[in-house]
Write a structure and sequence with these properties.
Blueprint: E1 12-19, E2 30-33, E3 38-43, H1 49-61, H2 74-89, E4 102-109, E5 112-119, E6 128-132, E7 138-140, H3 148-163, H4 168-177, E8 180-181, H5 192-202, H6 207-245, H7 256-311, H8 325-333, H9 348-355, H10 373-428, H11 443-492, H12 496-508, E9 512-517, E10 527-532, E11 535-536, H13 545-564, E12 571-575, H14 583-597, E13 602-608, H15 612-626, E14 627-631, H16 640-644, H17 646-662
Parallel strand pairs: 3-13, 3-14, 8-12, 12-13
Antiparallel strand pairs: 1-2, 1-4, 4-5, 5-6, 6-7, 9-10, 10-11
Length: 670
């Protein structure tokens, strides 16, 4: 009898609130309901669609998936994601909003209703946490007296209890790598390390097996490394035996722990140097931008002063009261103040120059005549607004410069400490051995030294065998887990593979097959092998970009549905790949997305309106009852190019809204 497989429960979103989110200039504080099966945030290039997906993941996990990341250990990945999240939102959120910006989420896991609020630059804290059951009974009421970090720990513990996962690092990994397809386009099919971790968590195995695999692989790798270090040290000791007997003194072997510590210190120094250099670059950029903003503010203030003087009638070249007294005198009395000549009338040349708007003495162009009062007032209002904008920007940049300067100085001190630690360790273990301190050859002492070294060789070789034995034990412990994975896959094939094929073939229109490659030995990682039209596609470049993207999305959908079967809906976050599809495949992708949500699973997606066939097909399949459609163009300002063609956006929006109104009745037969 096959043992019932484990399933997990995952978050289903209901509402998101972004507060002081500077990137969205029109609506920096916005609340949107996400109660329907499909939530689509539609917009245009550069408006912040990808950032919306990142904000949701940050709220749930306290981190953002770093680009190009390679997952080695889940706790380390969780730390890296938290650190990257802080860097990710720097620049997207104004310095002035840094302390107040936050994301608040309402979501369900199983029968537990969550409400959490997390500040964008405090990944390990929660400002608010409350959990109730479906009847509104408090499971975890908000406690304002709790420390924000302790509140975050309580949230993680409650989430693990409700989800069935073993560690919060597992949840972070699942949310970033399975339940999200973000702007980095990380592909599971061709990342064996990530796929293996997903398989242990998704195929109904005990979640602790994924952690055990990590520990066993780490133990095997460490034992292998220690065995190699022991062999290396034995070789050094054996070489020193020969050197002692030949009266050539060299330094002996170095303990593996010291070698590892030195490598760690060197790596830490390089990391801190890179972070220090990055901060310096940011500081220089901020200083340049501050100088430019200050100059713009000065120019605008000068222009404002000139406009103000014209407004009160002090700068008009056509007003007699503002002309030079010499010119004013000859216009009134026909007498030249320069040479004293009395003319019968104003000299014709002077009249002509003034009529043409030129200076009578040097022929230079005089300033334009005073504008009308309404024009002057408009100019003053415009310039006043520009000065306010430049003043705010300059103040924000000043605070950024101050913060970056402090962070750079702190990082420089940290680097100095790292250099001191690394250099000290290097010098400490490069001291000459006792043999080098012998003043004159002493055969007896040299023979004793050789005997000691030979004994060390025996000890080191014994340690090597111990390490190899531990490595063999780790491999032996891994083999039944590998067998369990194969067994779980065999049991899952009847459900998971057809589910994946149904979604993926709906998009690609070709027969597909996916199989498990369990790898070879403890270092061989289990992964999925994909075949399209009976041809293996083991390398990403063997498929087109659109095929890679949407087949990987189909894989995520299938995994999410499989791991939650019978335990409630799955929720997928998708930043729709832009520009990868023609209109036929856009429609097919829309069909695939709609099929995923047909049984109550949830899709939160962003898309450009140039993928209108995808959105229209989804709108036709879902209708307003199942699909929420939000125009992101109402959240922030468009570029000049986008503003000029705003009518095109409105036409595309209208077509999608019309399809939503008509609903499933218009969905044609393929």
């Amino acid at each position: 009898m096959v043992q019932a497989r484990r399933t997990v429960r995952l978050p289903r979103l209901h509402e998101v609130t972004l507060t002081s989110f500077s990137l969205y200039r029109v609506k920096p504080t916005v609340t949107v309901p996400i109660d329907k099966d499909v939530f689509c945030l539609a917009g245009a290039n550069g408006l912040g669609k990808s950032t919306f997906i990142a904000a949701l993941n940050y709220g749930l996990t306290g981190g953002v998936a770093p680009p190009g990341v390679r997952v080695e250990q889940l706790p380390k990945y969780q730390r890296d994601a938290a650190a990257y999240g802080t860097r990710y939102f720097t620049g997207r959120i104004s310095e002035l909003d840094r302390e107040s910006s936050s994301v608040e989420l309402k979501f369900t896991i199983g029968t537990s209703q969550y409400r959490i609020r997390r500040r964008f630059f405090s990944p390990h804290e929660l400002e608010h946490l409350s959990v109730t059951d479906n009847d509104g009974n408090a499971l975890l009421p908000h406690d304002a007296t709790l420390d924000a970090e302790q509140r975050n720990i309580l949230f993680q513990e409650q989430l693990l209890e409700d989800s069935g996962l073993q560690t919060f690092a597992q949840f972070v990994f699942m949310q970033h790598f399975v339940l999200s397809f973000d702007e980095h386009r990380h592909l599971l099919f061709w990342d064996t390390r990530a796929t293996e971790l997903v398989l242990y968590l998704a195929l109904g195995l005990d979640p602790s097996l994924a952690k055990q695999v990590d520990e066993l692989r780490k133990a095997a790798a460490a034992a292998g490394s220690q065995a190699r270090n022991a062999q290396y040290q034995a070789t050094l000791a054996r070489n020193e035996v020969n050197q002692v007997l030949g009266q050539l003194n060299k330094h002996g072997g170095v303990d593996s722990a010291v070698v590892d510590e030195y490598r760690s210190l060197q790596a830490n120094k390089e990391r801190i140097t890179a972070e220090r250099d990055a901060l310096r670059t940011q500081l220089v950029d901020a200083q340049l931008e501050f100088a430019e903003s200050s100059a713009s503010l000065m120019r605008t203030r000068q222009e404002y002063d000139r406009a103000f003087m014209r407004r009160i009638g002090q700068a008009s070249p056509t007003s007699g009261s503002t002309l030079h007294p010499a010119i004013d005198h000859i216009l009134r009395d026909h007498a030249c103040r320069i040479c004293g000549t009395q003319h019968a009338q104003v000299p014709a040349r002077i009249e002509a120059e003034l009529r043409d708007g030129n200076c009578p003495l040097c022929a230079a162009k005089l300033p334009d005549a005073q504008a009308s009062p309404s024009d002057s007032q408009s100019a003053l209002v415009r310039l006043d607004a520009e000065m306010a904008s430049f003043t705010e920007k300059t103040g924000s940049l000043s605070r950024t410069i101050e913060r970056l300067d402090q962070e750079t100085r702190s990082k420089q001190r940290e680097l100095a400490a790292a250099i001191t630690a690394s250099s000290g360790l290097q010098e400490r273990y490069q001291l000459p051995s006792a043999v080098n301190e012998i003043d004159a050859p002493d055969i007896a002492m040299m023979r004793e030294r050789a005997r000691q070294l030979e004994g060390s060789v025996d000890v080191l070789l014994g340690r090597k065998e111990e390490h190899l034995q531990r490595r063999a034990e780790a491999i032996a412990a891994y083999e039944p887990i590998q067998a369990a994975l194969k067994s779980a896959w065999n049991a899952a094939e009847a459900e998971f593979v057809p589910r994946f094929r149904r979604l993926a073939e709906e998009f690609i229109g070709l027969p597909l097959q996916v199989t498990l490659d369990a790898g070879s030995g403890v270092n061989g990682m289990a992964h999925l092998a994909l075949s399209v039209n009976s041809t293996h596609r083991r390398r990403a470049e063997q498929l087109s970009e659109s095929q890679r993207f949407f087949l990987d999305i189909a894989l995520r959908m299938s995994l999410a549905q499989h791991m939650t079967i019978g335990e409630g809906p799955a929720c997928l976050l998708v930043d729709t790949p832009e520009g990868a599809l023609d209109i036929a495949y856009e429609a097919k992708a829309g069909e695939m997305f709609a099929s995923f949500t047909a049984d109550g699973d949830q899709l939160v997606m962003t898309a450009n309106v140039n993928t209108s066939q995808l959105l229209r097909r989804m709108a036709e399949r879902c209708g307003r009852e199942r699909m929420e459609f939000v125009r992101m163009t109402e959240w922030t300002t468009l570029t000049d190019v986008q503003t000029e063609e705003e009518g095109l956006f409105n036409d595309a929006f209208s077509a999608i809204e019309s399809a939503l109104d008509q609903g499933p009745k218009t969905a044609g037969v393929q």
